[in-house]
Structures are given as C-alpha cells and as structure tokens.
Amino acid sequence: MTTTNTTPTTVRPLAVITGAGSGIGAATARTLSALGHPLLLVARRVERIEALGLPDTLARSVDVTDAKGMAAAVAEAEALYGPADLIVNNAGVMLLGEVARQPADEWERMFDVNVRGLLNGIRVVLPGMIERGRGTVINVSSVAGRRTYANHTVYSGSKFAVHGISESLREEVAGHGVRVVTIAPGAVETELLSHTTDEAAKADYQAFKDSIEVLAPEDVATAIGYAYQQPQRVTVRELVLAATAQAA
Hints:
- This protein is α/β, with parallel strands linked by helices.
- It has helices spanning about 25-35, 45-50, 65-80, 105-130, 155-175, 200-210, 215-230, and strands at about 5, 15-20, 40-45, 55-60, 85-90, 135-140, 180-185, 240.
- The chain has an 8-stranded mixed beta sheet with strand order 1-4-3-2-5-6-7-8, sandwiched between helices.
- Helix 3 (about 65-80) runs parallel beside helix 4.
- The longest helix is centred in the middle third of the chain and has 29 residues, at about 105-130.
- It is globular and about 50 Å long.
- The chain starts with a strand and ends in a 7-residue tail after the last strand.
C-alpha cells in the first residue's frame, strides 16, 4: 500500500474511486488524474492501482464491504489532500446464472458489494459533503438496473437497487447542494464477466459481446468526467450509454 507524491501539486479537490484496479475504475482514475485531481483509489488488489503510476494518489487495499476500512482510507486521504468532493462508487460484481441453479452465496456477494459496498462509500463521504454544502456522488450501475435480461436476475436486482438508492438519495440531499448521479453503461469490455461461474451463462454473454463492438472503459470514464465537470448547480441525474449496436 503506497502513496505517490503525497504533497499535492494541484488545487483540485480529492476524488475517491472504488474498484479502481481495472476496467472502468482504472480508466476513471486516469481521466480524473489528467484533470488534476488528487485521488484515493480503493481496490482489493492494490498492486493494480500502484501500477497506474498516477501522481497525487493514495492507493489502499480495501474491500468496500468493510465500512471501517473505507472510513479509515478516506480519513487518511482527506488528511493528505483535503475533503473529498467526489466519490465514484464503481466496485461491483456480476455473477450471471439462473436463480434455480445459482449458489446462494453468489447472491449474497452481489448484494454485499453492489449494494452494501456502495452504501458504505456513500456514508463515509456524505456527512462532510452536506456540511460543506457541495459534493458529488456518482454511482456506477448498469442498463441491467433499468431492464431485465436472461441469467441476470439477481445481478439485475442489485443494480435496480442502485438506481433506487441513487434517485432517492438525490432527492434527500438536493437541498444541501450535493449532487447524485447514476451512470448506467451497457456491455463494457472489462473483466467483470470473468467472475461468473456458470459456464453456459458466461459463454452466452461472451458470444453477445463478440457479436458487436461494446463500450471501452474509457467511454464510461469520459461520461463520468462529463457529469462531474458540470457546474455544481447542474446535476446529470442519470446517464445511460451503450454501444450503438447494442439494441437492448
């Protein structure tokens, strides 16, 4: 666990990104770093974060389901770089399969990470944002949080929860000057599918991905950067993006 360039070289506020070791999280880290933001990058595999080699970055190995670990990492980063103005709750698990055959521990893992982990991230930064009267919470959901697909039942349920939590929270904190944004990508070229243990479901989804040109992580990172860079008085409540060839 390392810190790179602990003395900030910019006056941009701190951004926190979970699931920053690969895919959308890593791409978002590069995007926000290029904009001059100091970063707290959280992932289970800290060596992946360190390999990004970004300046003004605190890398910590924390599972988002560990509320105390998240709080400690954010406190450490804020001591270095000042208050967190943004959190990107990106950490997620996708385990596809039919409910009748899927192990129950896979359901639990998806809800633990995708819902409880997201709430842990929100909770640790939100009081400070409310006190300061500004801040942005960006929750990475999925088009599967807006509609259903075969073999996605429990995953989709967890992402529907993200949409519901995000919109209700937005209403709750709007009067405090805090923004809440839901980013809902379609299929993205990441390692998310590798988590799935149902080989038939994995093969079906991979065949779909191979049939079109899916989103790159950088496409989603650009959307996140766009939403965050709007004036604080403007909230992009929900941004849905998918490959042009993805019909559903």
